[in-house]
Amino acid sequence: MIKEGDKVLLVDSRGKKYLLTVREDEFHTDLGIIKLGELIGMNFGESIKSHKDKEFKILKPRIVDFLAKMKRGPQTVHPKDAAQIVAYAGISPGDFIIEAGVGSGALTMFLANIVGKEGRIVSYEIREDFANLARKNLEWGGFGDRVEIKLKDIYEGIDEEDVDHIILDLPQPENVLEHALNSLKPGGFFVAYTPCANQVSRFYERLKEYKEHFSRPKTIECLVREQEVKKNCFRPSTRMLAHTGYLTFLRKL
Ligand code: SAH
């Protein structure tokens, strides 16, 4: 049963989605006004009508909805790349992750959903405005219990030990290799997301100094090609997200 303070996803007849918090308030759409208080006591799967008699389906929002509707500051990691990070580093419920930088907190939210209530994420960020934005997004998504945002330059060191994964989305991941030696568990993963090929080359160059400490690196790029499925023509969409970033994975020995 839906309670005051719950988050709901309302979907209109056109498929447009609204992620709202249930409270005694009105929500205005071009299809009419919805009295949000009326949602209290209703169930997910039911529908509510606006004052113009337009129907909205009430769904329970899931992580994909929070990622789609969160407030954005700097460029976020796309779910296709976040999924590769989880898959290739084997991120699991209960894991302890160090991340940098937090940016808008999109990757953080994706990871917080995977590690679950038993997991923990400490995310380093140098910009206070982004740290505040990410903190708000994470609280709003219901992940404030497992994420700590630290206003600190990760190039200067990592305070935590016994870490399962270090996940970086910042310009020079090679500056974190030295700190990873002390904080990562043996077998722990080091993941670097970098948009440019020359960043990957620079990372590999520095990695030569750490050869005996890490497994051989692996770098991937993930391309997702959406399909247009029509009665007379089933084909890839004309447009595609061509490039986001490279993902480099290593493992501490
Ligand atoms: N992964 C994030 C986006 C991160 S954008 C998301 O999906 O939303 C990169 C962030 O790294 C920026 O916010 C930037 O301020 C931060 N950053 C850059 N260098 C850093 C450093 N040395 N330590 C901590 N944060 C850093």
Which spans have pLDDT < 50 for at least 5 consecutive residues? none
Describe the main β-sheet briefly.
7 strands, mixed
- The strand order across the widest sheet is 9-8-7-10-11-15-12
**Average predicted local confidence, pLDDT:** 98
The amount of helix comes to 10-25%
Shape category: globular
Our Rg estimate from Cα atoms comes to 21 Å
**From N to C, what is the helix and strand string?**
EEEEEEHHEHEHEEHEHEEEE
The structural class is alpha/beta
Which compounds are bound in this model? S-adenosyl-L-homocysteine
Oligomer: single chain
Strand content: 25-35%
End-to-end distance, in Å? 49 Å
In short:
The protein is of the alpha/beta class and 253 residues long.
How are the elements arranged and paired?
Elements: E1 7-11, E2 17-21, E3 26-29, E4 32-35, E5 47-49, E6 55-59, H1 63-69, H2 79-89, E7 96-100, H3 106-115, E8 120-125, H4 128-141, E9 147-151, E10 163-168, H5 177-183, E11 184-194, H6 197-207, E12 218-220, E13 227-229, E14 234-236, E15 246-251
Parallel strand pairs: 7-8, 7-10, 8-9, 10-11
Antiparallel strand pairs: 1-2, 1-6, 3-4, 5-6, 11-15, 12-15, 13-14
S-adenosyl-L-homocysteine is lined by residues 74, 76-77, 100-101, 103-107, 124-127, 130, 153-155, 169-170.
Report what the structure shows:
Helix content is 24%, strand content 29%. With 253 residues, the protein is of the alpha/beta class. Helix 2 crosses helix 3. It is globular. The model has no long low-confidence stretch (mean pLDDT 98). The protein binds S-adenosyl-L-homocysteine. The site of S-adenosyl-L-homocysteine has 20 residues, from helix 3 and strand 8.
